[in-house]
Amino acid sequence: MNTGTLVGSLIFAFVLLLLVTWLIQLMIRGWRRRAQRQADLIGELPPVPDTVGPVLAGPLRGLYVGCTLSPRWHDRVAVGDLGYRSKAVLTRYPEGIMVQRSGGRPIWIPADTVLAVRTERGMVGKAVPTANHDGGILAIRWRLPSGTEIDTGIRADDRREYVHWIEEAR
């Protein structure tokens, strides 16, 4: 390789690196602005209770897909760590539903705030194809103390368990 080609390749690589860095910074800035816009809508999450009754359903292991503003299943909540995917365990108690996430704070959904439990085929960029066209994601619609309704999605390792969660919600 001659010197001219090497210098040209290095300049091209440097410009490409600058472009990628700039695009990543724009994405991070957009995520932070979304979180700022949603901060008043979301407010404070309900506190996790010290004691709970017996387990009614679960534990259901799977992937925490995220939370979205209802009814827009593609509008991911960016406040705090609610928008990050992680492994999770979902457990239902008489007082509410506990979503324990690895690498994130637990989410407590009080029973009196749950509006619906259903299955969805997709949520916040996660689509789960199924053979019988039923939902691959368990979506829990609930009302925050601020009055905003959000959907919390879990893609379970064993989707046959969804029946128990939907029946229990009725």
TrEMBL record:
Segments traversing the membrane: 6-28
Keyword set includes Membrane: yes
PH domain boundaries: 42-169
Keywords assigned: Membrane, Transmembrane, Transmembrane helix
Keyword Transmembrane helix attached: yes
InterPro entries: PH_bac
Pfam families for the chain: bPH_11 (PF25362)
Taxonomic superkingdom: Bacteria
Protein name per its UniProtKB record: Transporter
